[in-house]
Here is the input.
Amino acid sequence: MKTLVCRCEDVTLHELEAALERGYRDIESVKRYTGFGTGWCQGKWCLALCARLVAERGGDVDKPITPRPPYHPVSLSVLAGLDDLDLPGGGPHHGEGHEPKG
Here is the structure.
C-alpha cells in the first residue's frame, strides 16, 4: 500500500524513510532529496507530518525549510515587454478585447 506524506509531489512514506536511511538527517536535506513541500501547497499540508516523522526517527527539525514560490508559467512576450508594444500576435491578450495603448 502506498502511504503519501506529500500529495502535491506524490512523496511516499517509503521515500521519506529511504532518505533518512541514506543519511539525510535534517528537514531541509530530506525535503531536497524527496521533494516534499515543493508543490502547490508549499508544505502547508505535508510539512508538519514530515517534520514529525523526521523527528521521530532522530532527525533534526529545528531549522525551517527554504520555501520557494510556486511556479506559474509566463509567456515570453510578457517577459520581453511585447505586450506594451501592441504588435499583432505580440501578447496573450491580443485579440481578446484588449484595448490598444495610446
